[in-house]
């Protein structure tokens, strides 16, 4: 196993870096999109709620691999050229944002209606009340499920292997095929994923406890 690491260190580092980069990009944009569509789903305008429901329904109920393949095969053919890394990152972002939207929406709905009514009676607009009163409370509630979504996002980044995204799983496939050491190679890749996910899990727990206090 150690020989596999030393002989393929460059490939593992490339895959590790691409996995980190994909995860960070997808995490940032899926959180932005998720919060946006969560707010849209609870907003008064009916048209906005319909758009949010359609978006969430589509990306929550289509498998991640299918979404990624659409961006890898169909979008480049008819709209714009995308690399495997770009297609995988976009698909992962849209897929995760739908689950984040539902998580944040549930957190917002868990806040009593009296909070919004009290803020509005004090002269706040709907946007101000949501920004300064409702969202801060809701985000404290949704930290644990959001943490799970972030960890799942990192693990789901392995979908890039199917579109030549040069992530950890893709590099593992190449190394396994060239060395015929399949079991050892995937054990090493599993350890790399643990290096990414365990600190994230512990940080989300720490953040949850900090906000609770």
From TrEMBL:
Keyword Isomerase among UniProt keywords: no
Where in the cell does this protein reside?
Cell membrane
**Where does the UniProt entry say this protein principally localizes?**
membrane
Cellular component GO terms held in the UniProt record: plasma membrane
Task: Write down the superkingdom of origin.
Answer: Bacteria
Per the record, the coiled-coil ranges are none
Transmembrane feature ranges = 16-40, 52-75, 129-147
Membrane topology qualifier: Multi-pass membrane protein
Q: Name one Pfam family in it.
A: BPD_transp_1
Alphabetically sorted, this entry's keywords are:
Amino-acid transport, Cell membrane, Membrane, Transmembrane, Transmembrane helix, Transport
| Protein's GO biological process | amino acid transport
All residue ranges annotated as the ABC transmembrane type-1 domain in the record? 16-204
* Family indicated by similarity: Belongs to the binding-protein-dependent transport system permease family.
NCBIfam families recorded for this chain?
HEQRo_perm_3TM (TIGR01726)
Record-given protein name: Amino acid ABC transporter permease
The protein's organism comes out as: Lactobacillus amylovorus subsp. animalium
């Amino acid at each position: 196993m150690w020989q596999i690491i030393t002989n393929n260190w460059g490939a593992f580092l490339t895959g590790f870096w691409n996995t980190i980069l994909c995860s960070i990009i997808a995490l940032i944009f899926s959180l932005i999109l998720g919060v946006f569509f969560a707010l849209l789903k609870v907003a008064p305008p009916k048209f906005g709620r319909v758009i949010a429901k359609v978006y969430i329904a589509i990306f929550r109920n289509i498998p991640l691999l299918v979404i990624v393949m659409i961006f890898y095969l169909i979008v480049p053919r008819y709209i714009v050229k995308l690399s495997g890394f770009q297609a995988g990152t976009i698909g992962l972002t849209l897929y995760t944002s739908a689950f984040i939207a539902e998580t944040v929406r549930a957190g917002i709905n868990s806040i009593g209606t009296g909070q919004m009514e009290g803020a509005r009676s004090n002269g706040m607009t709907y946007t101000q009340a949501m920004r300064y009163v409702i969202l801060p409370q809701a985000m404290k509630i949704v930290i644990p499920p959001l943490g799970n979504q972030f960890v799942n996002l990192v693990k789901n980044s392995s979908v890039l292997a199917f579109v030549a995204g040069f992530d950890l799983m893709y590099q593992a496939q190449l190394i396994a095929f060239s060395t015929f050491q399949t079991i050892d190679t995937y054990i090493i890749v599993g350890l790399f994923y643990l290096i990414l996910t365990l600190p994230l899990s512990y940080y989300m727990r720490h953040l949850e406890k900090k906000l609770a206090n």
